[in-house]
From TrEMBL:
InterPro entries: A-D-PHexomutase_a/b/a-I (IPR005844), A-D-PHexomutase_a/b/a-I/II/III (IPR016055), A-D-PHexomutase_a/b/a-II (IPR005845), A-D-PHexomutase_a/b/a-III (IPR005846), A-D-PHexomutase_C_sf (IPR036900), A-D-PHexomutase_CS (IPR016066), Alpha-D-phosphohexomutase_SF (IPR005841), PGM (IPR045244). Pfam families: PGM1_C_vert_fung, PGM_PMM_I, PGM_PMM_II, PGM_PMM_III. It comes from the Eukaryota. One of its GO terms (molecular function) is phosphoglucomutase activity. This is Phosphoglucomutase-1-like isoform X2. NCBIfam families: PRK07564.1-1. Its main location: cytoplasm. Residues 1-25 are annotated as: Disordered. One of its GO terms (cellular component) is cytosol. One of its GO terms (biological process) is carbohydrate metabolic process. It comes from Salvelinus namaycush (Lake trout). It is found in: Cytoplasm. Belongs to the phosphohexose mutase family. Residues 19-161, 198-303, 311-424 form the Alpha-D-phosphohexomutase alpha/beta/alpha domain.
């Protein structure tokens, strides 16, 4: 066996113009990473080069992914390049798998300088699917704009990358592996860790596991159904909910992580988690939940398939926040939601006199507020909920938060939601997603729409649909000034706000790998007790009609309807 130090090489390369990270890192089709020479290496080198050399030398970084196709191939390259770029230690999830919330947890636990998350979240996997790389910084959260901009600038001018091509790491064995490299005084270390245990230990310090165990396996236990959608969450759900909290093994389904997520779309909503919805409608289970590919998103269902809108979910958790021991100890510093999310959380914040922040879409904005001690609980309409225990949204945390509420209140999901509406009023909310729309057509539509709504004549304009009359009070392109560092984020979504508080919002999303996704959000508040239990699609139909008429969305995109409605 050759025990000589491993060789570190510098290889020439040429830049690619399309490696700008979006709100969730760099996402492309798998074929792009496979077919374009050094495409992966270029971006990984750009990440390492964005870290100051003194900070990088001998440092600890975390690596993990959602198990999708190309995950292990990418990890091998990331390890080889980490060694060559002076990183001292990598902490990697067993088999290269680690949920996005667990990556954030492990970064913070090991005081790492950052981590690389390999995921395209809720996007399809497999050979024909998507792959993504995201850089999280030392706080455990997604990199801020200044960092991602630096990574992008480096990627545009890159001429070479450093790699240790003969380095091979064993991802299948929980172990500490060391490698001697030429011209390096200290060996390079790779630790393969059980990320489920680190994450579970964190949750034990947040929730009352004894109360949850009684709820799930005691004399009067409830029946639950959790769908991991063949994503990363399977091992976490099995270990924590089934083995530790006592829920029967058959209460967790699709728990084997698969490279193609079983050929399904690992997106926890009514469209892609339809099997779970159908199962819940049967009335056999009291509580249901689904998770996305990398475990940061969640969908909550009650008995008979009662759907909890994500905007309502975070509001209900806020209204019952002290059922969670963690908040009994820390108190509540503030609430936050992304701008497109319904204003349901605002109603709770107002009633409890707690500060509410409205941010652009992207968890990094919440992270900044958390680091400054201004924020405790937050959520996004896109099935993301979380708190300041880590710096990512956290699907399993949200499920345990809901189970804590059920354990304390001894009510059904539906009754808890309906009580909430009667107390705070209801925000009727829906989102229309138009996926893989022609990019140029989508951009042109948004530009024309912005010009129109910003004209003086648009202010005060009235729209009549049936018996409903809406008058425009305000229209803008949302702009956010970070209260922590004063950073200004412009062009975050077009808003039409009516005199009754109803809102229509249009956004182009940056989380897909093909074309554009146009998202239309409708939010309307109702406090009349006779109306709060009505069908949301019926209640919102007039505003949907206005949204499509004003934007001419179907005509401009060639679509007859949305890909997904939530």
């Amino acid at each position: 066996m050759d025990d000589s130090p491993l060789q570190v090489l510098t290889r020439p390369t040429a830049p690619y113009p399309d490696q700008r990270p979006g709100t969730s890192g760099l996402r492309k089709k798998v074929s792009v990473f496979q077919s374009k020479k050094d495409y992966l290496q270029n971006f990984v080198q750009s990440i390492y080069s964005s870290i100051d050399l003194l900070d990088r030398q001998g440092s600890t970084m975390v690596v993990g992914g959602d198990g999708r196709y190309f995950n292990q191939t990418a990890i091998e390259v990331i390890v080889q390049m980490a060694a060559a770029n002076g990183v001292g230690r990598l902490v990697i999830g067993h088999h290269g798998i680690m949920s996005t919330p667990a990556v954030s947890c492990v970064i913070r636990k090991y005081k790492a300088i950052g981590g690389i998350v390999l995921t395209a979240s809720h996007n399809p996997g497999g050979r024909e699917g998507d792959f993504g790389i995201k850089f999280n910084t030392a706080n455990g959260g997604p990199a801020q704009d200044a960092v991602t901009n630096r990574i992008f600038q480096i990627s545009r001018t890159i001429e070479e990358y450093a790699i240790c091509p003969e380095l091979r790491v064993d991802l299948a064995t929980l172990s500490k592996q060391t490698f001697d490299l030429e011209n390096k005084f200290k060996p390079f270390t790779v630790e393969i860790v059980d990320s489920v245990e680190s994450y579970a230990n964190m949750l034990r310090n947040i929730f009352d596991f004894a109360a949850l165990k009684e709820l799930l396996s005691g004399e009067n236990h409830i029946k639950i159904q959790l769908d991991a959608m063949h994503g990363v969450m399977g091992p976490y759900v099995k270990r924590i909910l089934c083995e530790e909290l006592g829920s029967p093994a058959n209460s967790a389904i699709n728990c084997v992580p698969l490279q193609d997520f079983g050929g399904q779309h690992p997106d926890p909503n009514l469209t892609y988690a339809a099997d779970l919805v159908e199962t819940m409608r049967g009335g056999q289970y009291d509580f249901g939940a689904a998770f996305d590919g990398d475990g940061d998103r969640n969908m909550i269902l009650g008995k008979h398939g009662f759907f909890v809108n994500p905007s309502d979910s975070v509001a209900v958790i806020a209204a019952n926040v002290f059922t969670i021991p963690y908040f009994q100890h820390t108190g509540v510093r503030g609430y936050a939601r992304s701008m497109p999310t319904s204003a349901a959380l605002d109603n709770v914040a107002r009633a409890t006199k707690i500060e509410l922040y409205e941010t652009p879409t992207g968890w990094k904005f919440f992270g900044n507020l958390m680091d400054a001690g201004k924020l405790s609980l937050c959520g996004e309409e896109s099935f993301g909920t979380g708190a300041d225990h880590i710096r990512e949204k956290d699907g399993l945390w949200a499920v345990l938060a809901w189970l804590s509420i059920l354990a304390t209140r001894e009510q059904s999901v539906e009754d808890i939601i309906k009580d909430h509406w009667q107390t705070f009023g209801r925000n009727f909310f829906t989102k229309y997603d138009y996926e893989e729309v022609d990019l140029d057509a989508a951009i042109q539509m948004m530009e024309d729409l912005e010009l129109m709504i910003l004209e003086k004549a648009f202010m005060g304009q009235r729209f009549a649909v049936g018996e409903k009359l809406y008058q425009v009070e305000k229209a803008d392109n949302f702009e956010y000034t970070d209260p922590v560092d004063g950073h200004i984020c412009r062009n975050q979504g077009l808003r039409i706000i009516f005199t009754d508080g109803s809102r229509i919002i249009y956004r182009l999303s940056g989380t897909g790998s093909m074309g554009a996704t146009v998202r239309v959000y409708i939010d309307s508040y109702e406090k009349d007790p006779d109306k709060i239990f009505r069908d949301p699609q019926v209640m919102l139909a007039p505003l949907v009609t206005i949204a499509l008429k004003v934007s001419q969305l179907h005509e401009r995109t060639g679509r007859s309807g949305p890909s997904v409605i939530t």
